[in-house]
Amino acid sequence: PADVKAELIKKYPPKVARKRAKQIMINEALENETPEITANVRTTPGIITMRGCTYAGCKGVIMGPTRDIVNLVHGPIGCSFYAWLTRRNQTDAGPDGDNFINYCFSTDMQEQDIIFGGEKKLAAAVQEIYDLMHPKSIAIFATCPVGLIGDDIHTVAKNMKDKLGDCNVYAFSCEGYKGVSQSAGHHIANNQVFRHIVGENDTPTEGEFKINLLGEYNIGGDGFEIDRIFKKCGITNIATFSGNSTYDQFATAHQADLNAVMCHRSINYVADMLETKFGIPWIKVNFIGANATAKSLRKIAAYFEDQALIDRVEAVIKEEMPEVETAVADIRSRTEGKTAMLFVGGSRAHHYQELFKEVGMKIISAGYEFAHRDDYEGRQVLPNLKVDADSRNIEEIEVEADATRFKPRKTPVQLVALEDAGVKFKHYDGLAPDMEEGTLIIDDLNQYEAEKLVEIMKPDIFCAGIKEKFSIMKLGVPMKQLHSYDSGGPYAGFQGAINFYHEIDRLTSSKVWTYLKAPWQESPELTAAYVWE
Ligand code: CFM
Ligand code: HCA
């Protein structure tokens, strides 16, 4: 691995090489700790990063999947157009629910708005949406020019909320440049959802074992599969943040008794705030991988300390697993020992390792686009994280216990007993401890390094996003998108695991890659050189 690392940074100018060296870590088991990686820092200009912008993280990732909130983009049309239905977050509004996901709302900012200001246009757009659609809520998103010209979107939102009366309007200062990646946008979205929506609806919700699922975005229908399993187990999912979600789900989320956190990176802020303000504890779960799904269900059941629930969860696992095992038995002889690389945003490069392990594959290199050190090394590093100027730029909101609605769900004695029994609260170990020694963990991988890595290590499959897809395929290596799932999914839960095994089998067993060389690369006699006379 040291040679591979040296090769990856060999061509960089010395300063860039020094910086990248800190973001490329050789995984090793140090005594009681994992090695340190540099993360959540600026990408060096000129490098073709896999990352996106803060607006993408806020509007596209966190708020995009809600179906009955109108997401209005204040900015040039390109920002809306490129965020329009590209993330494959599915939704099911039923026969008569509101669903605005397939629309693209934008103020279509022009030069004159840049010069004279766009606030009037924004207010008019909110009014127009209200008149046409009568949504419960309108969310306004700032794009880069909004911050540059200083439009006060929060005052516009407040004025329109007061004027309309029955429509909650709020805004997100999520200008693309606000942070070093999408991650800043997650934080901004978390803050505003918590400030403006969570706790707004005290109408009691039904259910015996009430949870929220945090950080699940229903890509390719993952959330549908997880909800199917919850229902079978008798677990009530009040709100998913934010796959297939509604305004009222967020508004009633404070009534849940447990928060199950799937994508730690994107939503840990809401988890912490729900605990501080309402007393709801959170645990880390993962529904990617059949075994991981079973483990997460058992953790939830253990938390509620109810024998009937524990038995029902066991019965569900027993019912679901045989089909999973049959699928593994069918394909494992073909996938065993094959290698994979995983480079995805902030969670999936960790979560998907479970699925590959279930079919006997090895992860030789992985990394996140924009995760922070705690997602690599575990949350124990949090107290030592240096807050740099870019992070300080993102608001940390002060949350206190709610005067009337704060209710600890467990006594301190119960919490300790649960911890002792293996239900760890506010706990995430990160990706590094789950990866083998000597594997390469790379933060903010770029186009150049991705190609180099594939050339040197020749994985049997490479997983990343649309920007990497075709350059990797041209190197003759099968490529699977773990953002959009290409057109596949769901891959979560038990049924999803089966789908994924088949997909990986199909991709890594296909002969098509052996035909990738052009005739003149196979037979040198067919090559010709152009000679200048
Ligand atoms: Fe969380 Fe996500 Fe991810 Fe993410 Fe994303 Fe995504 Fe992702 Mo693309 S919230 S960090 S910002 S799991 S959109 S559903 S696939 S990069 S690994
Ligand atoms: C985003 C969204 C994205 C992009 C995926 C990709 C997604 O970061 O803005 O690059 O293929 O999952 O849709 O991560």
UniProtKB/TrEMBL annotation:
The UniProt entry, under InterPro entries, shows: Nase/OxRdtase_comp1, Nase_comp1_asu, Nase_comp1_CS, Nase_Mo-Fe_asu
Q: Which PROSITE patterns is this protein grouped with?
A: NITROGENASE_1_1, NITROGENASE_1_2
Q: Name one GO cellular component term.
A: molybdenum-iron nitrogenase complex
Any single GO molecular-function term of the entry would be:
metal ion binding
TM region positions: none
Q: Where is the Nitrogenase/oxidoreductase component domain?
A: 53-506
Q: Which domain of life is it from?
A: Bacteria
Query: What cofactors are annotated for this protein?
Result: [7Fe-Mo-9S-C-homocitryl] cluster; [8Fe-7S] cluster
According to the UniProt entry, what is the EC number of this protein? 1.18.6.1
Q: Which reaction does it catalyse?
A: N2 + 8 reduced [2Fe-2S]-[ferredoxin] + 16 ATP + 16 H2O = H2 + 8 oxidized [2Fe-2S]-[ferredoxin] + 2 NH4(+) + 16 ADP + 16 phosphate + 6 H(+)
UniProt KW Nucleotidyltransferase keyword: no
Sorted keywords for this record are: ATP-binding, Iron, Iron-sulfur, Metal-binding, Molybdenum, Nitrogen fixation, Nucleotide-binding, Oxidoreductase
Q: Give the quaternary structure.
A: Tetramer of two alpha and two beta chains. Forms complex with the iron protein (nitrogenase component 2).
Q: Write out the similarity annotation.
A: Belongs to the NifD/NifK/NifE/NifN family.
Per the entry, what this protein does is:
This molybdenum-iron protein is part of the nitrogenase complex that catalyzes the key enzymatic reactions in nitrogen fixation.
Protein name per the record: Nitrogenase protein alpha chain
Q: Which species is the source of this protein? A: Desulfocapsa sulfexigens (strain DSM 10523 / SB164P1)
